[in-house]
Amino acid sequence: MNTPTAADTVAFEVRDGIAWVTFSRPDKRNCMSPQLNRDMLRVISDLEFRDDVGVLVLTGEGSAWSAGMDLKEYFRDSEALGLQGVRQSQREAYAWWSRLRWYQKVTIAMVNGWCFGGAYGPLFACDLAICSDDAQFGLSEINWGILPGGGATKVAAELMPMRKAMYHALLGENLTGREAAECGLVNESVPADKLRARVVEVANKLLKKNWETLKATKDAMRRVREMTYDNAEDYLIRAQEALNWHDKSDGRHLGMQQFLDDKSYKPGLGEYDKTKSAR
To answer: Could you give the 3-state DSSP secondary structure of residue 26?
Structure first.
């Protein structure tokens, strides 16, 4: 583990193809300050193109994933600097969330505790999300006089059924991990003592896939949500053509060879063996 210094707020380690990136402000329930946002952008940028990283997992130290934005440092202190200070803090936060949405590797949010307000930004930015049953999800902004900003309202409306999202935002009541899974905020919820093992299991499945295809697929899933059917159809045709040229491993032909000629795998039951070379 790369242990943070007194000035750092993010820790990370790379193990067996998985980069474990950790919010590291446990005394503040990992709420996001301008310093944390700067540290996070630096860390994920450094990891993005490393050959020993295939999957990035974002988690939190201690009892929280992230309690959202630091009310003092992100809001009060930034507002004291005027519009320039506010805009700078916003840009530092949105910059790493945007980087994570279009990251070169598949990303998983491992939500091990509180996930509040502004934390919905990186939650949505991760491709997959798995939480513990005892996690707590909340849009508490209504309780202190602001709307769920920083994309949080968009995240709730995007991932949850409309009536549930509206109730969640208007009442400010928390959701448990299981409730969050039922509402679509996360893929699944598991007992806390099984959370890391489940995330490792999913990550290891991803590590067996063709990396170029994973990147193309995750981008396609995000892009087509905002397209008409006809536009999405055309985009996907062009994206596949680009992938055919961009994938230096020639995975498409290798997979077909193993299925059609070698009879060594069935696409509906698993992935082709990317460690073998095409003949």
So the answer is: helix
Residue pair 161/183 in contact (Cβ under 8 Å)? The answer is yes
Greatest C-alpha distance within the chain: 68
Structure tokens belonging to residue 241: 């053509």
Whether 175 contacts 137, CB under 8 Å: yes
Cα gap 92→84, rounded to integer Å: 12
For the chain (279 residues), the mean pLDDT of every run of 10, in chain order, is 64 98 96 94 97 98 94 80 85 94 98 96 98 96 86 95 96 97 98 98 96 94 95 93 77 64 68 67
Q: For residue 46, give the nearest of 114, 103, 125, 109 by alpha carbon.
A: 103
Query: What's the helix, strand, coil split of the chain in %, to 5?
Result: 50, 15, 30
Q: What's CA 23's distance to the chain center, in Å?
A: 13
